[in-house]
Amino acid sequence: MRHQNSVFHSLLKHVPWDRFDGLVQAYGADARVRRLTTKSQFVAMLYAQLSGAVSLREIEAGLRSHEARLYHVGAAPARRSTLAEANAQRPAELFGDVFGLMLKQASRGLRRAMAEATYLLDSTSLSLNERSQWARFSAGVCGAKLHVVYDPDADRPTYAVVSAANVNDITIAEAMPIEPGATYVFDLGYYDFAWWAKLHAKGCRLVTRLKSNTPLHAIGERPVAAGSAILSDREGRLNRRIGGGRPNPFSDPVREICLRLETGKILRIVTNDLEASAEDIAELYKRRWGIELFFRWIKQTLRIRRFVGTSENAIRIQVAVALIAFLLLRLAQATQSAIDSPLTFARLVRINLMNRRHLHCLLSSDPPTSPNQLALEWGAT
Description:
Blueprint: H1 7-12, H2 17-27, H3 38-51, H4 56-65, H5 67-70, H6 80-89, H7 92-106, E1 118-128, E2 136-138, E3 141-151, E4 156-164, H8 169-175, E5 183-185, H9 193-201, E6 205-209, E7 217-222, E8 230-237, E9 254-260, E10 266-271, H10 278-286, H11 289-301, H12 312-333, H13 342-352, H14 371-377
Parallel strand pairs: 1-5, 5-6
Antiparallel strand pairs: 1-3, 2-3, 3-4, 6-10, 7-8, 8-9, 9-10
Helix pairs in contact: 2-7, 3-4, 3-12, 4-6, 6-12, 7-12
C-alpha cells in the first residue's frame, strides 16, 4: 500500500519553510531553546486553529495522540506549560512576518492592475480575559481589535494589525501602507479628512460615508433615474475649515450620492471619483459586506473568540496564526475541485486533519491508496 501523509501534512506544504527558518534565525527565536522549537510552537498553534482545540491542555493532548504523524512535518508535541511560555516570550513579529510571506505566496497569479484593485477596511472586536491588563479599557473589561485590509476579489486579507480596543481605527489606518491607484472602501471609523487627502494624493479612489452633520457645498448636480435607489448625485466641496478653525486638508471636489436602502435608511456616500456612474459607486460601497462576512467566517471557523494566553504577545501570535490558517485553507482548497464551499472544506479538514487522506478525497468514504485508484476516482483515462 502506497504511503499517504495526513491532511495536516498536506496543508503545511504551503508554508515556505526555508523562509520560516530564515526568520527564526533573524529573530534569534530559537536561541537557548532546549525543549520547544519555534517550528514546533508554530505547528502546535496551527493544529489548535485547524482542529478546533480551545485550551493548552487540549492542544497538548491532541498533539501527543498524533506524535508519530508530527514527526513527518519535523515537529514535536508541546507541553502546555512550555507552549504557554513560548507564546508569551517568542517574538510575535516573527509570526506576523510569516503571515506577510504567506500573503505574497497567496497573491501569485492573482495580481491585477492597481487601478482595478479594491480594498475594504474595517476592524472587529476580540473579547479577552480580564487578566489581559494590557488591553483594559474599563473596569473589569478587557478587549482588543483586529484591524484588516481585505481584498474581496482574492478573498483574503492583505494587511492585519492587532491593537487594544481603545485604539481608534484611523490611528491604525494612518500607519498602513497605501497602494497608489487602488480603491479603498471604508466606513465612519476612518472619518479623517487628512487621511482622505493622503489617499487622494496617491491617486487612490475612496468610497465612504458622510456623517449626517457634515455639510456639502454643492457646485453641480447630476440626473438620476426615476424610481431607482439613487436619490441624488451631487458634486461639491466639503467645509474649507474644520475643528479649531484649521484649514481642511481635503479641498478637492467630491461627489455625494444619496442611496436609499431596502430598510428605508438613507446613506450619504462620498467619493473622489467624479467619473464613474452613481450605481457603480453604490455597488462599491455595498461590497463592504464582504469584510463583515470574512470576520464572521474566521470567528466561526477559527479560534479567535477564545485565547490560550493573556499577554499581548500571546494574543498577537494566536491571531497571526489564525490568519495564516485561513490562507492555508484557501491555498489548499485551490488544489482540488471537488469542494467549492470554503466553509465545507474547512469543516472536512477539521474532521480529517490527522487522517491519512488526500485533499482530493475528503468527501469519499475510502481514500485512494494508489495513483491508479486516484485517477479512476477523478475520471482520468
